[in-house]
Write a structure and sequence with these properties.
The complex is a heterodimer of chains A (about 325) and B (about 250). Chain A has about 325 residues and is an alpha/beta fold. Chain A folds into two domains: about 170 residues, HUPs (Rossmann fold), CATH 3.40.50.620; about 120 residues, TPP-binding domain (Rossmann fold, 3-Layer(aba) Sandwich). Helix content of chain A is about 25%, strand content about 30%. A seven-stranded parallel β-sheet of chain A has the order 7-11-6-1-4-5-12, with helices on both faces. In chain A, helix 5 runs parallel beside helix 9. The N and C termini of chain A lie far apart (about 60 Å). Chain B has about 250 residues and is of the alpha/beta class. Chain B has one domain: Rossmann fold. Chain B is about 25% helix and about 30% strand. In chain B, strand 7 and strand 8 form a beta hairpin. In chain B, helix 2 packs across helix 5 and helix 3 packs across helix 4. At the A-B interface, helix 3, helix 4, strand 7, strand 9 and strand 10 of A face helix 3, helix 4, strand 7, strand 8 and strand 9 of B. Strand 13 of chain A pairs antiparallel with strand 9 of chain B, so a sheet runs across the interface. Bound molecules: flavin-adenine dinucleotide.
């Protein structure tokens, strides 16, 4: 029988909502027992949230002062030790999971399937390659321990459990290296919804032409209750922060509505929004490739369209 | 000698429109343009800049794969790498195998740093650097957008979901390059001529004591689900009406 251990990523005492999506992915493996692992300086609050996810039968906590800022170098040896009792070790395809999981896979001498879109069985997985231009189905020999990162945009969140799963604190013996030290993290603070999990996203490209011009998108986003994203060109040019990048090498998202303003629709960008329910494109070039995938397209100058759009959605007619 | 090891993977150029073969056995790569993986180009550029600041003395480029990989190694030498190692094999190379080979080379060459692209744009795995760091028992600083070498330590800024994270790591270490780490230089014609004279060593995996293993076997390839083209609206009012109808605004 499969036993799946999922790394419960968290920040600021909150479980990352994508973990419930990883649990949903794991339920694709019939009859699997699913456990979550919390690595934290103080695991109580996160463990309590993790225990509420339907399908989870146990939450394991590993407490250590160094996990105040969990790093791959320090989590990996402990996770590898904990993984001994499991057939599958999953983590989210967030920057945290992408950093950590291959290090664990190598310590376990296990293969890793990255960004899985489906766990079809204990041995068979689907994942995108070539920026999502092809989907490969891969298979391991029965009995092989597998590490995977989960492409969370491919899954709905698992629901809430009828009664919480038991929480068990474990102590591990793996030595923790001191060669890697956390210094700081800086975030562009905002009260807007988190881009990764937002239902609505307004996004801007190179056409915005300045940091200042991005304000028209922030204003619209605040009216809609949306998060704000950006293309690589906009981030490279410094108009938007790096954590706003959507695409092959940025965030892969699946909002109900994605409003692309002045974004051409390069393949590397589109791979990040394939799972959006509705794509709206505003672009002055009628030939822009973004229109090939947009559910609604409007040819026009975004500097006129966006303010007018904001005005119209604010009126009640 | 202070040495930096850099990975140079040969991949289908990022501008090529990839198509799945009709029989689902792979993607069409016949006759398509091949290039250095863009993230590896950034890795190499960073290594060259560290060397140009006098903080390293030699940059060694490594490619693993069939004979054709030498084209990409020549590009790396033309960009400025001092020498190249081609681990020649026709076997399927999973990230685990690539990491084991890189590990052997990192030890053989006694490097202070291994800089690799954060992912390859063909298999999009994003694994090799982290696996290398684990096998080597050394620090990893992935998705780097800024690297500062201070003696036997480095300060690395990483692009993470929350923003920018800074780590301090002891050398030797592995750094994986993200897009905004730098902008790779263009290769000039005289450099291409000079590159022809630079040393390029060819070895096979067995010489490094590594046997390539394929543990994730490809069963089939499918084209992605296509989104159907939607409707063009004539003005903002029509757009708002349509989105209101769906409860989206
Ligand atoms: C390895 C690699 C990885 C990459 N990863 C990513 C990634 O993760 N995410 C990503 O986004 N890109 C990525 N890219 C870059 C990608 O190829 C494109 O270069 C980028 O997405 C282009 O951004 P853009 O659409 O904003 O800019 P452009 O392509 O320059 O498009 C600007 C658009 O704005 C329109 N426009 C101009 N003015 C106006 C106006 N006033 N009103 C309305 N429309 C206007 C233009 O018609 C044009 O279509 C990657 C590239 C590589 C090589």
């Amino acid at each position: 029988m499969s036993k799946i251990l999922i790394v419960a990523e968290h920040a600021g005492g909150k479980l990352n909502p994508v973990i419930a999506k990883c649990v949903h992915c794991a339920t694709g493996i019939a009859g699997a027992e699913i456990h979550l692992a919390v690595f934290a300086a103080d695991a109580a609050a996160v463990a309590a949230q993790a225990a509420q996810i339907a399908g989870v039968t146990k939450v394991v906590t590993v407490t250590h002062a160094v996990h105040a800022n969990p790093l791959a170098a320090t989590v990996a040896p402990q996770l590898a030790e904990l993984a001994q009792g499991y057939s599958h070790i999953f983590g989210p395809s967030t920057t945290f999971g992408k950093d950590l999981m291959p290090r664990v896979a190598a310590l376990l001498d296990a293969p890793q399937a990255s960004d899985i879109m489906a766990a079809e069985s204990a041995t068979r997985f689907k994942r995108p390659i070539y920026a999502g231009n092809a989907i490969i189905t891969v298979e391991v020999e029965a009995g092989t321990r597998v590490v995977a990162t989960v492409r969370t945009a491919s899954f709905e969140a698992a629901g809430a459990a009828a009664s919480p799963a038991p929480i068990e604190a474990v102590s591990l013996s793996a030595a923790l290296p001191t060669h890697t030290r956390f210094v700081s993290v800086t975030s562009a603070r905002s009260d807007r919804p988190d881009l990764q999990t937002a239902k609505k996203v307004v996004s801007g490209g190179r056409a915005l032409a300045s940091t200042d011009n991005f304000k028209i998108l922030y204003s619209l986003a605040d009216k809609m209750g949306a998060a704000v994203g950006a293309s690589r060109a906009a981030v490279d040019a410094g108009y938007a922060a790096n954590d706003m990048q959507v695409g092959q090498t940025g965030k892969i998202i699946a909002p109900d509505i994605y409003l692309a303003c002045g974004i051409s629709g390069a393949i590397q960008h589109l791979t990040g929004i394939k799972d959006a329910r509705t794509i709206v494109a505003i672009n002055k070039d009628p030939e822009a490739p973004i229109f090939e995938v947009a559910d609604y397209g409007l040819v026009g100058d975004l500097f006129q369209v966006v303010p007018e759009f904001e005005k119209l959605i604010s009126s009640d007619s | 000698m202070k040495r930096i090891l850099v990975s140079i993977k040969r991949v289908v150029d990022y501008n090529v429109r990839i198509r799945v073969k009709p029989d689902g056995t792979g993607v069409i790569t016949d006759g398509v343009k091949m290039s250095v993986n863009p993230f590896d180009e950034i890795a190499l550029e960073e290594a060259l800049r560290i060397k140009e600041k006098g903080l390293a003395e030699e940059v060694v480029a490594v490619s693993i794969g069939p004979a054709d990989c030498q084209q990409q190694l020549r590009t790396a030498l033309a960009m400025g790498a001092d020498r190249a190692v081609h681990v020649q094999t026709d076997a399927i190379i999973e990230p685990g195998t690539a990491a084991r080979l890189m590990h052997k080379l990192a030890e053989r060459e006694q490097v202070m740093l291994a800089i690799v692209g954060k992912q390859a744009i063909d298999d999009d795995c994003n694994q090799t650097g982290q696996m290398l760091a684990a096998l080597w028992g050394r620090p990893q600083a992935t998705f780097a957008s800024k690297v500062e070498i201070n003696g036997d330590q480095a300060l690395v800024t990483r692009e993470v979901d929350a923003g920018l994270e800074t780590l301090e790591i002891d050398l030797p270490a592995v750094i994986t390059a993200d897009l905004r780490l730098n902008e790779p230089r263009y290769v000039k014609l005289p450099d291409i001529m000079k590159a022809k004279k630079k040393p390029l060593e060819t070895i096979d995996p067995a010489a490094l004591g590594v046997t390539p293993v394929e543990r994730l076997k490809a069963v089939k390839f499918d084209p992605p689900a296509q989104r159907s083209k939607g409707v063009m609206v004539k003005d903002v009012q029509e757009l708002v009406t349509a989105l209101r109808g769906k409860g989206l605004v």
